[in-house]
Amino acid sequence: MWSHTTNPSGAGTTTARIEWPMNDHGAMTVRVEASSEVRQLVEYESDAVRRTLARLPTGATVPLKMESLGSRGNAWRVTELVGVDHTRRTDAPRRDDARRADEERGERERRVEV
Prior knowledge:
Blueprint: E1 14-20, E2 28-32, E3 38-44, H1 47-54, E4 61-68, E5 75-81, H2 95-113
Parallel strand pairs: 3-5
Antiparallel strand pairs: 1-2, 1-4, 2-3, 4-5
């Protein structure tokens, strides 16, 4: 009888290591750490999930949930990046950036006053 060492439904969290980073077509290769199984990630729950994964370098590990796209061979859809808050804007200025902007604005105002 055939058995599968991983959960093909993708119901649980899987820790995966990036083997090949995302290409121009949005596909990337990961290795499931628990089983050494290689998977092709080709679909993502949202653009935010896709962008987050696209920024990860080779060798990075990430906890995620995924489901098999049964009709597409070894293709998988990422349904969740576990522990990642995608509602936080990545383009929002950090506190240090805001402080620097205030300092630069003050410097410009001092130059104008002279």
